[in-house]
Amino acid sequence: MDRDVEELIQALIPKVTFPDKEKAEWLNEIIAQLWPSLNCYIIKYCRGKLQTKIKKKFESFRFEELDFGNQPPKIDGIKVYNKSISKDAIIIDFEVFYDGDCDINFSMSGTQIGRIKDFQMGVEIRVILKPILYKLPIVGGMQMFFLNIPDIHFELEGITSIPGFSYFARQKIEELINKKLVFPNKITKRFSKSVDAVELKSIEAEGILRVHVFEARDLEKKDVTGKSDPYAVLNVGAQEQKTKVINRELNPQWDHYCEFIILDPEVQQLHFKLFDQDELSEDDFLGRLVSRNF
Ligand SMILES: [Ca+2]
């Protein structure tokens, strides 16, 4: 073959023929068209259930303006697992990124006290369609959950005058997401009455991760005494374990063992955070580590 023609053919063959994760622009187009309706649903949820929850702690709290903007969440990649992994189910992972132009105002006792802007969230969502039936509707049910704690960033403006509120707001948003959506918590939907609803909610773990939190060295001094009171918080999804606090120590030895249920060691993460405990203020952050592929 002529060398120039051969080079031309080589240049035309795509470099990556079977990417692991597929882009799904068609699905993003559907989400974009559904976004006004979804937006409406989220606003109703915030004004209803979420506002009621916050009112339990801050009675005069009220959402004034709720606008989740024109930017819908975007799917960056989709992966469908093959039959040898998924057995009697179809497993689909979605990489979702939301960079919203939201604008949320809230008040206490009628006075506007704060605003959330530029909410960003990156998350891996797993959808499991199971069991597969030999009659209609073919797919008997669905499970949906976040594989890991999502990365959330948002700006809170103008609430420094209320002690503890900023911390409380962040904590509540994270807690709400973790409790509802992060593995081992999940949303399930039954499509066929022949499917056992309890079984659909159950977890089929692949294994147990055992962690030995031994020690830390040369930690930052966070207290006026020139020491810190360190403890560690470990998370695999919404599963959380804590070590004890070791007072006034920069080289703590916890020698703490804990275990986590693992569904998929390829995609789940172990989050490890260190804090200095304080009696009269929020605990200080000392450091963090994320471990994958254990
Ligand atoms: Ca301390």
Automatic annotation (TrEMBL):
Domain (C2) spans: 189-294
Keyword check for Calcium, yes or no.
yes
Q: Which CDD domains match?
A: SMP_ESyt
> How is this protein annotated for GO cellular component?
endoplasmic reticulum membrane
Q: Name one GO biological process term.
A: lipid transport
Entry's Gene3D superfamilies? C2 domain
What subcellular locations does the record give?
Membrane
Kindly give the PANTHER family that the UniProt entry links to this protein. Answer: EXTENDED SYNAPTOTAGMIN-LIKE PROTEIN 2, ISOFORM C
Name this protein carries in UniProt:
Uncharacterized protein
Species of origin reads Rhynchophorus ferrugineus
Query: Which taxonomic lineage is given here?
Result: Eukaryota, Metazoa, Ecdysozoa, Arthropoda, Hexapoda
